[in-house]
Hints:
Elements: H1 14-24, E1 57-59, H2 67-72, E2 79-84, H3 89-104, E3 110-117, H4 121-128, H5 137-140, H6 143-146, H7 151-164, E4 168-172, H8 177-184, H9 191-194, H10 206-234, H11 249-275, E5 279-284, H12 294-301, E6 307-313, E7 326-329, E8 332-335, E9 340-345, E10 356-362, H13 367-370, E11 378-382, E12 385-386, H14 391-403, E13 407-413, E14 416-422
Parallel strand pairs: 2-5, 2-6, 3-4, 3-5, 6-7
Antiparallel strand pairs: 1-7, 8-9, 9-10, 10-11, 11-12, 11-13, 13-14
Amino acid sequence: MSTPRPPLSPRLGQGRECFRTLAALGLALALAVGNGGCAGKKAPAAPQAARPLPEALLTASGEPLSPAAFAADIARADYILVGEEHPNPCDHLAQAGLIRRLVASGVRPAVGREMVPADRQDVLDAFNAGKLAVADLPAALAWKTTWGYPFALYAPIFEAAREYGLPVFALNAPAGLARKAGRVGLENLPPAERVTLPGAVVAPDPAQVEELRELFSSHAAMREKAATKAAEAKGKPKKAPAPDSGRDRFAEFTTVQALWDTQMAARAVLARALTGRPVVVVAGGGHVERGWGIAKRLRYFEPRSRLATVMPWRGGDGPDRALAGSFYACPAMHKSRLGMTLSQEVSDAGPDGAGNLLVTAVVPDSPAAKAGLLAGDAVTAAGGHPATHLAVLHTAAIEAAKAGEPLRLTVSRAGETLDIAIPLDIPAGPKK
């Protein structure tokens, strides 16, 4: 069974979850490249003697997970929490592979998805009944506006569910409701909205609160830096921040995080009660890592339930056994909405395990392709920052969007250094 644990290396899970919360609170910019600025601290990496195959399941000590260990741990759990970094294609293939491995071992789980809000369960019910095909889901779920990440990333999990007749459940709160609760308070929601949320919202662990405070502060500092740079680029003084009218934005932030985790746990409990099956919970790593998120709330609702947690491992030094009970091997990778996919080779190249960023694919006619980026390019800088980690893209995109400028990449190609400017074509202001 899995046990609670500390943040990822790099802290993969909280990236997009934290950023979406911060954006909703007006503390971050709309990004075209969003690799998880809340993704966390880099953990030291060391050279490794042998690299596991992508998607291989590993023990917390980094050894291949044997069939016997899989059967004794993951396959016996009531809830299997599988974390991801949303833009990483390998993560989704690994999640689908884990579901297939469960079925092969005789376990036919229900599948819970963070990516679908509970008020869209009727669409999933139609899918579960065979009335909708996988290809019908993007339109039926309003995927592009409800979730935003390309549906193609998530299709393998829906395809596995369809192939084996596994019921799929929506886990998230109705769109925008968690954020509204963070702004006005749960007690001030209209009854019709309050009834759609869990009866009790389980507060975060004190240790997690301290980590969230650090992430919150880092985003505030990042936004301040971007605003200063944008003002300097335009030759104007930086605008004074709008008054908050007594709002405690950090309290709002933590409320939203706690509500998301409690909502998803409650919906997973419902899925198990309705189906009598174990539930595979597919969610961002920040909701899974360390047992602080969904797992903590599952223990609140069902103290005797058996839990297993599985998180991605990006290479370098062995997995941090405090993060999860098991791991799947996937390289650090980001598929940008600008039409480029980048991977990071984790190594001992630097004091913090930084590696090289390689462009592995470019979508034809995408903004990246039109700007001249090619597969095989090595990105050495983004927005003037050394490109030692994928998170640098996040920082550079925030600054470029705030300044109303293109995302500028420095790439190495066949021994030459080139400058690539990719238009972002997004609003400069924060998301509303």
